[in-house]
Each structure stands twice: as C-alpha cells, then as structure tokens.
Design a protein that fits this description.
Elements lengths: L9 H20 L5 E5 L7 E6 L5 E5 L4 E4 L7 E2 L8 E6 L5 E5 L3 E5 L7 E4 L5 E7 L5 E7 L5 E7 L7 E7 L3 E6 L5 E5 L4 E4 L7 E3 L7 E6 L5 E5 L4 E4 L7 E2 L7 E7 L5 E7 L4 E7 L7 E3 L7 E6 L5 E5 L4 E4 L7 E2 L8 E6 L5 E5 L4 E4 L7 E2 L8 E5 L6 E5 L4 E4 L7 E3 L7 E6 L5 E5 L4 E4 L7 E2 L7 E7 L5 E6 L7 E6 L7 E7 L1 E8 L5 E7 L6 E6 L7 E5 L4 E6 L5 E5 L3 E5 L7 E4 L9 E6 L5 E5 L4 E4 L13 E3 L1 E3 L6 E5 L3 H4 L3 E7 L5 E8 L2 E5 L6 E8 L4 E8 L1
Parallel strand pairs: 57-64
Antiparallel strand pairs: 1-56, 2-3, 3-4, 4-5, 6-7, 7-8, 8-9, 10-11, 11-12, 12-13, 14-15, 15-16, 16-17, 18-19, 19-20, 20-21, 22-23, 23-24, 24-25, 26-27, 27-28, 28-29, 30-31, 31-32, 32-33, 34-35, 35-36, 36-37, 38-39, 39-40, 40-41, 42-43, 43-44, 44-45, 46-47, 47-48, 48-49, 50-51, 51-52, 52-53, ...
C-alpha cells in the first residue's frame, strides 16, 4: 500500500456517483449477495423443533421464521422460504407432504408439498403456540400461552388440517408447553407448576392429573397408550405406566433444565436441555426404562430444545444458535452437523485470496483454503483465549492471548509452537514489522519486543500503567500503540516508536475517547474506535490526520465496537457488539450500517478482513464466520432480508400508496417509512399503522426515489418515479 491518502479528483467523484447509481438499480432489480453465514451453516437462528418423515427427510424450525429441510439424513440443510419472521416453536408432519409449523402470535404455517411452499394462517389469538400434535390429516391440537401481561395457557384444536383453530380450554397462571396424543381421543398436555392435563374425548374436557411436582414441565411424550414421560426444569423426569393415572419421579443426578424427551421403545429414552450455570447442552439417556439415567457428551455448548429419533440408533437434536446434532450409535457419540466450532473467534487473517485463519477461545485455530467453504482445526498447543494474530508474511505468523500466551507458525498456520513470554499477564494485540521484529501489548502498560522472531521477548518500558489495547506498525521503523486509562474516565493515549519498537514514547494523551483499536495508513493518517469518556460513553469511529495527536469523530455505533479494518484508503469496515457492521467507501468521511439478518442470540463481531474491496470475512461469538462478495450490501442502511413493497401508482405525481406484502404481520403494526432520493439522502419519513398507507409526494422534485421500511426482523424496499 502506498503511503499517504489519494487525492479526490473531479473524475474520481464522478466515477463514484456513477457507481452509486449503478448499485442502486442493481439492488432493486435483484437481491444482493450480502453477508453469507459460513459458520454456523446454514443459520445462526435458534432452532426449537425437529421432526423426520423418513430416514432421510427432516425439518427443523426456529426463530425469525426459520425453516430448514434435509433430504440426506442431515448431511446438508436448506433454508425454506417461510414467508414470516415470527419465531416458530413447533413443527409436525402428518405425512411426507403435509406439515404444520406454529409460533408467536398464533402464527400457523401449512405445507402440502413437503416444504416447497408454506401457506400462512392464524390461529386467531395473540399468544405463542409452543407445541403441535395431529392425530390424522384433519385433526390437530396446539398448546401455548404467554407470561405477559398475565400468565395464561391455552389449548386449541383444528379439524381442517390446521387452517382454522378453536379454543378448547384456557388455564390462568400457567403456561402450557407440550401436547401428545396416544389415539384419536386420548391426549396429554404438560405445563408450568407440574401441570399435566388429560382428555379422553378429543379435547372436549380435560382433567388435571397428580404429577407430584411443582417444577415447570416442558415436554411430554408417550411410547404407547400406557407408558409415557414428562420432563422439565431442575432435572425433573416423570414416568407413567398406567396412562397418567399415577406419575413417578425418576432418580437422576442432574439438576439441569430438561426441555425435550424422546422414547425410542420400552427401555430406551432420552432427555435433553441445558445446564443453567454454563448454558451448555445436556443429554441424558436411560436403557432400562428410566430406572437409571446416564449423561452423554452432548458435543455442544448450546442449549438443546428438541430431539427426534428416526430409528433406535439414529437421532437428531436441535438448539440454540442453529445447532444441529446427530448420532448414529444411540448417543454414544454426537456430531455437530452445522458448526466447525462454537468457540468465539476473536481474530481473522487472510494470507491469500482463499487462504485464511481464524483464532479464538480455548486456543481455537481453524484454517480455510477454499474461501471459507470448509475450515479445519489446527492444533495451537494452548487452551488460552487467543485475542489477536499477525502474519508478517504468508508463512510466518503469531497469535497472542490470555495468560501471557504467544504461539508461532512458520508454515502458514498448519502447525504452531509455544513461545516463552515471561509473564502471565494477558496480551491484547500483536504486530510485526517483518518476520523478526514485533511487539505485543496488554494491560497495565505491558509491552514486549522481539528482534529474533520471538525466540526471546524483552520487556520494554512503556512509560505508563494504562491499558494498551492495540499495536500497529506501518513500516519497519514506525509504529503506534493505542490505549486508555484503566479507571474512569477512560481518556485515550497514543504511544509511538520510530526505531522498530525498541523504544516507545508518549505521543498523545488526554484524548476524550478510550481507544480500543487503530488502523494507520501512514505516519499521519489513521482511524481508531473507542468510547467517549463522557456519558453516555458513545461508541465512536475516529479519524486523525496528524499522526494521532488529535482525533475527530466520524461515526458512531449503537453498541460497543471491537474491530476496524481498511482494504484501501477508501473502503473500510468496523464491527462490534449487537451484530454491527459499519461501512465506509469514501475514506471514512461517512459511515453506514450494514445489518446482519435477524439473529437469535446476542452476537458480538470481533474481527474483519477483506481480500479485495468486495470480498470480506467477519468472525465473532459462538464461532460466527460471515462472508460477503459484494461489500456487504448496498447503500441503503440495513438492507438484508428484503421484500419488495407494492407501490401505486408508479410513476406518480401527487400521492403514492405503499402496501406491505405480509398483511397479517403489519395489520396492527406502527410502521416507519423512509424515502430516499437518488443520492441516498432521506427526504421523507412517514409513520402509519396498518399494512397500507398513502404518502404525499407532490412536493418532491421529479426523479427516482427509493423506499425502505424496517422492523426488528426484516427490511422492505421499493422504488417509484415522481413525475
């Protein structure tokens, strides 16, 4: 990269205007490639229910309208178009083609073509439906409820295959979580405070059974007309052998929350859930009809919400953050089908166009040689969190992290060896000016330097006890360190070296931002991220043109920011908590948000790397790996899962009518409608309630305009011409 900023010329400006114009049209004519999920794959959304129609074909549903289908026994899963972003909690297939899914606000989806298409229906209630069961192609039952504004449980029935629903019973003060029928007339419902209800007349009347517990019950399942299990919080497992007349508590050693149960036969059953202290998945199994239960290695750090066995040995489990597990040997081993790692990935570096390395928690290092399609684990030799990597060339690289950890590779990340740092303090950043000369920094002014490729590391006086968060070399001699005071207010500091890191001096202090990460193009021009020192401690993107002595805010984040990376002097990215990706294409003068499609879990994005102006990678919590091949989207902030609005008349002179495609979702919703001109400036904001609204556009100049409507789950877009 050449030193210095390139000057903007009139030709450059004209090219950028033309480019923006082209992007606008291409976006509205076709959906951009956006950010693709490489890990977990195909989705990070929580999965809540799974079922199979045969040995190879299965379905899973989850948050944000997620529906997945496999036709190869779980080897691959494809996202189905659900037509909704409501959370889905249960899926039930009557046969190979006919299935039902249900979830928030009484939302019911129905397919008659094995999931190729889903019709949207409503149960006519504003309560969540947590569980489904159909006794034949026409007759089905659903249970659910809500905790707010008041605890309410509900039982519903359909006699037309799920198109219409009637309320059979409601329960005050108790959520109902699970329903199961043993024949056309006999069924069971489980819920809060140990509630178990039974019907013997197809739901006309329900009788409470004595469960012997006040624990919340989350799942009930029967093997036959007499024998069934119910499981719930604090490790409660109940069993009946007389059709629910009596329930006996099973003896287990677990106090974990059990969310789902599946009985393969009279002797074998599984209960699954999560460990509240660690949020890890838990699986326990009985092989003697419940007399004893043994914990299995779940192979996941994520909670398990649902399970299904297609035969005695082959089973599937789904859960938090898109987790899908499979066993082929009755649970002796569970394999994660969707994620190469669930560990947080704190740093990503690409050595070539398709060759990249990511590092993170518990010493995790993974490598790809095919542009992120596949990733393979590489032994790091440590269990410490690795916070940052630096590769001075394509073969030699370093990773540093907690407890004084430094590991080095000389073969492009295939193998790693530990180096002695002489400290147990944690390192936050590493940077090398060449293969031999580099520095690492950490808390309390920790600063080490090597001039022999890490064979020895020497403690260098930093002149401060402040937190040193990031170090960057711009050439063999000049480097910068960014940090902040350890106590409030977190005023920022900049250290500088001009001798390759052998000595450092305080270059700037009292900066009104706690500096976390920096990126310099040359000795004068650079960027940083950090929080302002005054309440509300705004996460900010900063720019310097005097070598870090003074900083000017150029953008802000909604949550804490974690990384900053520029591909060149124009194109840069900032990532952070709350799934933030913030983008500039004009050298940092303006920044726009790129919203990752709705995620179920709090998502922190720790690191980014771009191999060209359009192709980039982002890593984060829960093993998240994202990729874009079009710069992450287009100019309209937050364009991701978009749906086209219906706008009429078009062209228009005075009034346009904007209609949402999903009438049910927006019927009672307050909508915020944004109108942009061709240059990307917002010219109108209109508020409306309902799925259709009129907008006065008569005062707008003639030309092309774009409309965006955003809610917490998706973005709707459209365009119109003002005559």
């Amino acid at each position: 990269m050449k030193s210095g900023f390139l000057l903007f010329t009139n030709v450059t400006i004209m090219k950028k205007i033309i480019l923006v114009f082209i992007i606008l049209f291409s976006f509205l004519e076709s959906k951009p490639q956006e950010w693709q999920w490489l890990n977990p794959e195909p989705t990070d959304n929580d999965l809540t229910s799974v079922c199979f129609t045969d040995a190879n074909t299965g379905f899973a549903v989850g948050n944000n309208g997620t529906i997945l289908k496999t036709t190869d026994a779980g080897v691959s899963w494809n996202i189905q178009s659900s037509g909704t972003t409501a959370n889905l909690y249960s899926v039930y297939f009557i046969d190979a083609n006919n299935g039902i899914a249900a979830g928030d606000s009484g939302r019911v989806l129905k397919t008659s073509d094995a999931g190729l298409s889903w019709e949207m229906h409503s149960a006519g209630i504003d309560l969540s439906l947590w569980s489904l069961f159909f006794t034949n192609s026409s007759t089905g039952y659903a249970v659910g409820g809500t905790y707010y504004p008041s605890d309410t449980g509900i039982i519903m029935k359909s006699v037309d295959g799920g198109m219409n629903w009637t309320i059979l019973a409601s329960v005050s003060g108790k959520m109902l979580s699970s329903v199961w029928f043993t024949d056309a007339n006999t069924g069971y419902v489980a819920g809060d405070s140990g509630m178990i209800l039974k019907t013997i007349n197809g739901g006309q009347t329900w009788v409470s059974q004595v469960s012997g517990t006040y624990r919340h019950l989350k799942s009930v399942r029967y093997i036959n007309a007499d024998t069934g299990y119910a499981v719930g919080y604090y490790g409660i497992i109940l069993k009946t052998t007389n059709g629910g007349n009596t329930w006996t508590s099973q003896v287990t050693s677990t106090q974990n929350s059990l969310l789902t149960v599946f009985a393969s036969n009279d002797t074998v059953a599984y209960a699954m859930g999560w460990k509240p202290d660690y949020l890890e998945g838990v699986i326990i199994k009985t092989s003697d009809g419940g007399s004893t239960w043994t914990e299995q290695d779940a192979g996941t750090y994520n909670a398990i919400n649902s399970c299904y066995f297609s035969d005695t040995n082959t089973g599937y489990a789904v859960g938090r953050y898109g987790t899908i597990l499979k066993t082929g040997n009755g649970g002796s081993q569970w394999n994660n089908l969707t994620s190469v790692t669930e560990q947080g990935l704190w740093s990503v570096v690409f050595l070539q166009e398709n060759t990249g390395i990511a590092a993170g928690s518990y010493g995790t290092i993974i490598k790809t040689t095919d542009g992120g399609i596949t990733w393979n684990h590489k032994p790091s030799g440590t269990n410490s969190l690795l916070s940052t990597m630096c590769f001075p060339n394509g073969s030699t690289g370093y990773a540093v992290g907690w407890f004084g950890t430094i590991v080095k590779t000389t073969d492009g990340g295939e193998s790693w060896s530990s180096q002695s740092s002489g400290t147990q303090q944690s390192f936050f950043s590493v940077s090398f000016s060449d293969a031999n000369n580099g520095c690492v920094v950490g808390g309390n002014g920790l600063l080490l330097h090597t001039n022999n490729g890490g064979t020895t590391w020497i403690n260098v006086p930093s002149g401060t006890t402040d937190e040193l968060n990031d170090v960057r070399f711009i050439d063999q001699n000049v480097g910068f360190i960014a940090g902040h005071h350890g106590n409030y207010p977190h005023y920022g500091i900049i250290l500088k070296t001009t001798d390759g890191g052998s000595s450092w001096f305080l270059h700037s202090s009292g900066i009104p931002y706690g500096l976390k990460k920096i990126f310099f193009f040359d000795a004068l021009n650079g960027f940083a991220i950090g929080d302002s020192v005054e309440y509300p401690y705004t996460p900010s993107i900063l720019k310097t043109t005097d070598g870090g002595i003074t900083w000017a805010a150029k953008g802000t984040g909604t949550c804490s920011l974690e990384s900053i990376h520029f591909y060149d002097q124009y194109v840069g990215y900032v990532t952070g908590h709350c799934a933030q990706i913030i983008h500039t294409i004009d050298g940092g003068s303006t920044w726009t948000n790129q919203v990752i499609r709705p995620v179920s879990s709090p998502l922190w994005l720790f690191s980014s790397w771009f191999t060209d102006a359009n192709t980039g990678y982002v890593t984060g919590s829960y093993g998240t790996i994202l990729k874009t091949t079009d710069g992450g989207g287009t100019w309209i902030p937050g364009i991701q899962e978009s749906t086209v609005l219906k706008i009429s008349p078009n062209p228009a002179s005075e009034i346009i009518s904007v209609e949402f495609p999903d009438h049910v979702s927006y019927e009672e919703t307050k909508n915020e409608i944004h109108v942009y001109n061709i240059t990307g400036n917002e010219v109108l904001t209109v508020y409306s309630i309902g799925y259709k609204t009129d907008i006065q556009v008569g005062d707008l100049p003639s030309g092309l305009y774009f409309i965006k409507v955003a809610d917490p789950t998706k973005v709707l877009v459209g365009k119109f011409i003002r005559e």
